[in-house]
Amino acid sequence: MLLLVLGLNLVISFLNARNVGRVWAETKAIGGWIRVVAWAGAIQSAIGFTYVYAFIVAYIAVSTGYLPPAMLGVLMSLMYIMIIIPMIGSAIVITIQSWINVAREKSLMNLGVAGWNTFATAYNTYNAIQSFGPALDSVQQGLGGLFGGDSDSDDSAARVILLAAIVLLAGVLTTNVIIRRYEASLPVSEEVRNSTRNLEYR
Fold first, then answer.
1. How many angstroms from the chain centroid is the CA of residue 177?
2. pTM assigned to the model
3. How far is CA 14 from the centre of its chain?
4. How confident is the model at residue 30 (pLDDT cuts 50, 70, 90)?
5. Could you give the CA distance from residue 116 to residue 122 in angstroms, rounded to a whole number?
6. CA proximity to 125, closest of 96, 94, 85
7. Residue 81 · residue 142 · CB < 8 Å
8. Would you call 58 helix, strand, or coil by DSSP?
9. Is the pLDDT of residue 86 over 90?
10. What is the mean pLDDT of residues 176-183?
11. What CA–CA distance (Å, rounded) separates 30 from 15?
């Protein structure tokens, strides 16, 4: 079941990054709200990849003895704290855009997407409110011994921080590579041509 969830996250994250990449140059030229939406999609993609990488790295780190099993929960809690706020913020932006799409074009598909986005955002926000405190407590207790004089605790805490940073960086870099790969792969719209033309004449 976990493998299925991780695989689904990889597919969704790739599709998000690809779709953002296709309009990245265009939204950069237009700017404004649509640029914010593109960034929200990129953030969602990076978080998705980070989520998958966190499980893989945590499993490898514990199975190889690099990280004590007792620190596994600390690592996952730290990853949760690092991604939950940007995840909810970008989800809110995407939800607003989905309702804008409904207002512009009333269709069953648009309504379904907006409804799902609204439910998912509300559900994740509720869970974040319930889970953030315990996750923060776990991190504070797990990393509280850092620089406390206990070399074993210091090493474990430092390794948790290092792994979290590597995983987050890997998620961001993966999204960046995919966006750059698919950047400007769609025909430039007339609106962008007009924007570019106006810039050239100024």
1. 15
2. 0.84
3. 11
4. confident
5. 10
6. 85
7. no
8. helix
9. yes
10. 94
11. 22
Compute the residue count for the chain: 202
Tens-place pLDDT, residues 122-167: 999 999 999 999 999 999 888 876 655 555 667 888 899 999 999 9
Question: Can you say whether the dihedral through the CA atoms of 168, 91, 115, 22 is positive or negative?
Answer: negative
| C-alpha span between 144 and 68 (Å, rounded) | 16
Euclidean distance between CA atoms 175 and 17, whole angstroms: 6
- Straight-line distance from the first to the last Cα atom of the chain, in angstroms, rounded to the nearest whole number: 57
Nearest to 180 by CA among 11, 33, 24, 16: 24
How far is the C-alpha of 77 from the C-alpha of 132, rounded, in Å? 9
* Residue 100, amino acid: I
Q: What count of other Cβ atoms lies within 10 Å of the Cβ of residue 135?
A: 19
